[in-house]
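User: I'm putting together notes for a lab meeting next week and I want to include a structural view of one of the chains we've been expressing. I don't have a solved structure, so I'd like a prediction I can at least talk through. The sequence is below, exactly as it appears in our construct file.
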Amino acid sequence: MFTKPLTRQPIAALDTTKDTDSISRLLVAAAINPRFCATLLADPQHALQAGFGGERFPLSQTISDRLVSIRASTLPEFVYQLNEVLSSSPCTT
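Assistant: Thanks for the context. Below is the predicted structure for the 93-residue chain, given as structure tokens.
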């Protein structure tokens, strides 16, 4: 029998809704514009900073760091690696 009351421990959760939206828009921009795609593949940091068509891609620092670490020569390879780095370890706040 338990004699201690159950208490809830605070859990920090990372809201990735905005990141997911930005990543989706980033990938669509790369898919429809060969020049932006080439920039994303060659220099992801610059692609994030420059944006596309006046649109920015705001990402949390954690997700941004993971995205700019990707080195790929094709968009499908970039997407594959992005999936790998995002699912390989949990995001922390």
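A couple of points you could mention at the meeting. The chain has five helices and no strands. Residues 17-88 form one domain.

User: Perfect, that's what I needed.
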